[in-house]
Specification:
The protein has about 240 residues and is of the alpha/beta class. About 35% of the residues lie in helices and about 20% in strands. It is globular and about 45 Å long. It is an enzyme of class 3 (hydrolase).
């Protein structure tokens, strides 16, 4: 694991008359991995009032990210079979969702190894559909609370993310709303950065998490040094 990320919360926009830039996200993964639950948990926790579900499982909302108003659209998708490596059939829903989106969440369940195996072909399909643009991708291992039924180890998810050059996070949608929020927030920021002309260089694999007491150890160390120095000067 490399550096951690501390992510600021997304606030609901109170001004619907300001112009906003579209950010389009697609959530992909196998059957039963919790894609819809993640989307609904994020939208219902972070905002006051109702989110707007459109036809075809498209959810939309105005949000603020780093002081900028964005028109966020999240596309839910049907489950993908592990063995399906060619998603380019004419009229295929997955291909249309991939072509449409600016950023992607690739979700698998730690209790279903076949859902983990579907991530690599999905990622390859994204790169095939967007050959000239390094669209941000985050790999999400869901159902982290079901450790008794685990089939995919955390190290396997990290290794896959490292191989593909993406971010990775293992979460429990049912137990930790903040982790779900962190995933969507970070993906919004990555898309916004790309749209603002940020470079498309390959990112280092990172686990997205909130540091526990980020400055506490440093504060304790400084306090001890200051106390020690005071005692020496007094003597």
């Amino acid at each position: 694991m490399s550096s951690n990320f501390l992510l600021a919360p997304i606030a609901e926009s109170a001004d619907y008359f300001l112009s906003s830039r579209d950010v389009k996200l697609t959530v992909l993964g196998g059957n039963g991995v919790g894609k819809t639950a993640m989307i609904v948990r994020f939208l219902t926790r972070r905002f006051i009032g109702d989110y707007e579900p459109n036809t075809g499982n498209l959810y939309s909302r105005l949000v603020h990210v780093d002081g900028e108003q964005l028109s966020l659209q999240i596309q839910d998708t049907p489950g993908c079979a592990q063995a399906q490596e060619d998603f380019t059939q004419e009229g295929d829903l997955i291909s249309r969702c991939v072509q449409w989106a600016d950023g992607f969440l690739l979700v698998y369940s730690i209790t279903d190894y076949s859902s983990y195996q579907s991530i690599r072909p999905l990622y390859q399909h994204i790169r095939k559909m967007h050959p000239d643009i390094k669209c941000p991708v985050i790999i999400v291992a869901n159902k982290g609370d079901l450790v008794h039924a685990r089939q995919v180890q955390t190290e396997e998810g990290l290794q896959l993310a490292h191989d593909l050059g993406t971010f990775f996070l293992e979460i429990s949608t049912s137990e930790n709303c903040q982790d779900v929020s962190d995933v969507f927030q970070h993906l919004c920021k990555e898309v916004s950065k790309l749209q603002n002309g940020g470079n498309g260089e390959k990112r280092r694999t990172s686990v997205i998490s909130r540091p526990k007491s980020p400055n506490m150890q440093d504060l304790k160390r400084r306090f001890k040094q200051a106390l020690s120095s005071k005692v020496k000067s007094s003597s």
